[in-house]
Amino acid sequence: MLALIRYSVPQGQTDEFLVQAHGIADTLAAQPGYVRGRVSRSVDEPELWALVSEWEGAGFYRRALGAARMAMYPLMTLMINEPSAFEDVERP
To answer: What's the whole-model pTM score?
Structure first.
């Protein structure tokens, strides 16, 4: 299962965003079911960032969000409001 949380980060807030985003990534990485993750930046729109993580299943991801809620709170105003959980689909 892939989790993708996108953020719109104004210039001048990048350094603070990176500190907090990596803190969130570290919190998520410590949760059961975590496979891997990273903080990424759009090559075409430098204000667009993503916190990407892979999980053993949606339940693990949803429980991990609860554990990371306090770490995520400061970045809520930068978060793009859209679905973040994507299931893997096998080739037909």
So the answer is: 0.92
Mean pLDDT on 22-26: 97
pLDDT over 70 percentage in the chain: 100
Q: Would residue 3 be called left, alpha or beta, if left means φ above 0 and alpha means ψ between -120 and 50 degrees?
A: beta
State whether residue 5 is helix, strand or coil. Answer: strand
Round to whole Å and give the CA distance between 17 and 51. 11
CB-based contact 39:18 (threshold 8 Å): yes
Which 8-state DSSP code applies to residue 79? B
| Cα separation, 4 vs 51, whole angstroms | 6
Q: What is the mean pLDDT of residues 26-47?
A: 98
The Cα angle at residue 87 between residues 83 and 91, in degrees rounded to 5: 135
Domains present along the chain, CATH in parentheses? 2-85 (3.30.70.100)
